[in-house]
Every structure is written in structure tokens, then in C-alpha cells.
Amino acid sequence: MTRQKSPQSWRRFWVKQALRGLDALEAGLTPLRKKLAQDNYYRFSSVDEVQLGAKLGVRIDANRATVDDWLRLPGISIHQARSLVELSRSGMLLTCWDDVAAITGIGLQQLQVFEGVVQFYYYDLDSEVMPRQLLINQASARELTTIPSIDLALAERLVYGRHRYGPYRDWLDLKRRLQLPPEVITELLHYLRF
What we know:
Largest sheet: 2 strands, parallel
Strand content: under 5%
Radius of gyration: 25 Å
Oligomer: single chain
Mean pLDDT: 85
Low-confidence stretches: none
Structural class: mainly alpha
Helix content: 40-55%
Distance between the termini: 81 Å
Number of strands: 4
Number of helices: 10
Shape: elongated
Order of helices and strands: HHEHHHHEEHHHHE
């Protein structure tokens, strides 16, 4: 004769099973949590790690992501990451996984496993809160004057210096060549990129 378990013993059994599952999940999160704490650009090695990263709060904004951000995801090549970044910086908004799939050539189903980490946000390109950045080594003087802290004289100096001495390498090179005060550089940080 077999003895039937009471409802309370079944509850205890299921609670123990659930706790074991939580312990296993926590055991998986702890090493990854340490890796993420040590390296903000930790490259996930598997889809499981990406999903654990999502549970730990890792987020990548598809329209503000850098090449390093995209390379955190397994299966994304440097070429694909660069293409995504350059297109989003040129003003193209990535609105969904279909856009990413079309640009990278990676199947939609393969990309959708990253849903917990990669987020698609809308940005108004004409917004003063998140201004569109101009490429300093390609922008015309007229385009540069659309930036609040650049008047026509400074825009012409920027373009002349670029044509005469070559492209600006970085912020320090720009500051040195045009002898700009730190306050002006600080104002330009959000409007220009190299």
C-alpha cells in the first residue's frame, strides 16, 4: 500500500524545487555579475550570458550604441557593428530588429534572442535635447553655423584649417590648431564628432 502525500508535503516539495532553481540561477548570475563589474564592455560568449546580462540590467540603445556595444553580442562582426553605428550616426533610426537584420545580413530569429539587452528608442533628429552630431571633417561652413556656439567666422576658420592642414584628429588637435578656449570645446562636444 502506497502512502499518498498530503497537500502540505507537495507544497514543501514544490517550494524546495523552486528554491533549487533560484539557487541555480543565482549561481549563474554571480560569476557574470563579477565579470560585468570589472569590464563595462564585457563580450558575452553565449545567448545564455546575454539573457543573464539582461536580468542584471545590461542595456544597449540601438541608436546610440558604439561599435564596442554591438561587439558585446555574440555573432556580431566588427564589419556589421561598424555598419550599424555609421548608419545610425548618419541619421537613420533603427526602429526594430528587421532594420538590424537587413543591415547585418543576420537572420531575424538569431537577433531576437538579444531583445532583453538591445532597446530601440526614438530620437527626434531636430531636438535640442539630443542634437544631431555633425562630422567636423566633412561639414560645410553653412552646416557648422547651425550649431549654437559657432558663428560664421568660427565656421570658416574650422573649414579653412581642415583644408589647409588636413582633417582634425581629435578634440585636442582641434583646440590646439584653432586656439579655442575650453569653454567653447565643452559647448561643441555634443554637436561635433570626428
